[in-house]
Specification:
The structure holds two protein chains of two kinds. Chain A is mainly beta. Chain A contains no helices and eleven strands. In chain A, the strands form two sheets. In chain A, strands 2, 4, 5, 9, 10 and 11 form a six-stranded mixed sheet that branches. In chain A, strands 1-3-8-7-6 form a five-stranded antiparallel sheet, with no helix packed on it. Chain A is globular and about 40 Å long. Chain A starts with a strand and ends with a strand. The mean pLDDT of chain A is 93. Chain B contains no helices and eleven strands. In chain B, the strands form two sheets. In chain B, strands 2, 4, 5, 6, 9, 10 and 11 form a seven-stranded mixed sheet that branches. A four-stranded antiparallel sheet of chain B has the order 1-3-8-7, with no helix packed on it. In chain B, a hairpin with a 5-residue loop joins strand 4 and strand 5. Chain B is globular. The chains are: A mainly beta, B mainly beta. Chains A and B meet through strand 4, strand 5, strand 9 and strand 10 of A and strand 5, strand 9 and strand 10 of B.
């Protein structure tokens, strides 16, 4: 049962433009969401998070939006840079604090 | 403050051998989580441990896999009689006592297991 879904396996964006990565979830009990960034041969690194009491959280070029009624969140990166090219995972902790991850979206930012 | 340390980074085993993966959490962290990433897939939860206790092993295969986090030393993920399907990247994450993963979790660089 995939409780966190990232339906786009890949995304290609030109440098300077906006990247939008999407994530859907099925468990209405989730109340906290995290985005992780992963480079090849490295572990995931935390990027940004959002609590369900908010609908937006911004950190520099990264903004996460949460739509609880639609059980949908998105990560916006603007402006996109070549160094942003990586796999992005959406995740949520369940009631026992284990992180449930989506399958990831591979972002490629080209010049 | 060193991050989460995993070793070895790469491990090659023949079918039927045992694989031992080690994870040293960040200093001051007493909660450890193991995840597995199969090729072209996301990160799948395997097991959650605190010192000397297994809290949640719902993601662990019932056979051949075991994990421990002793009072002293690193957490160990052990896979007995490895098969080709065990080939994957295994990631460990740690968090502070009581912090769970509702804040950022710190991941190690992973161990890439290849079974030949």
């Amino acid at each position: 049962d995939q409780q966190v879904k990232q339906n786009s396996p890949s995304l290609s964006v030109q440098e300077g433009r906006i990247s939008i990565l999407n994530c859907d979830y099925t468990n209405s009990m989730f109340d906290y969401f995290l985005w992780y960034k992963k480079y090849p041969a490295e572990g995931p690194t935390f990027l940004i998070s959002i609590s369900s009491i908010k609908d937006k959280n911004e950190d520099g070029r990264f903004t996460v939006f949460l739509n609880k009624s639609a059980k949908h969140l998105s990560l916006h990166i603007v402006p996109s840079q070549p160094g942003d090219s990586a796999v992005y995972f959406c995740a949520a902790p369940n009631n026992t604090d284990k992180l449930i991850f989506g399958t990831g979206t591979r972002l490629q930012v080209f010049p | 403050n060193a991050g989460v340390m995993q070793n070895p980074r790469h491990l090659v085993r023949r079918r039927g051998q045992e694989a031992r993966l080690r994870c040293s959490p960040m200093k001051g962290h007493s909660h450890v989580y193991w995840y597995r990433q199969l090729p072209e897939e996301g990160l799948k939860f395997m097991v959650y441990l605190q010192k000397e206790n297994i809290i949640d092993e719902s993601g662990m295969p019932k056979e051949r896999f075991s994990a421990e986090f002793p009072k002293e030393g690193p957490s160990i993920l052990r896979i007995q009689q490895v098969v080709r399907g065990d080939s994957a990247a295994y990631f460990c994450a740690s968090s502070p006592a009581g912090g769970g993963l509702s804040t950022e979790a710190f991941f190690g660089q992973g161990t890439r297991l290849t079974v030949v």
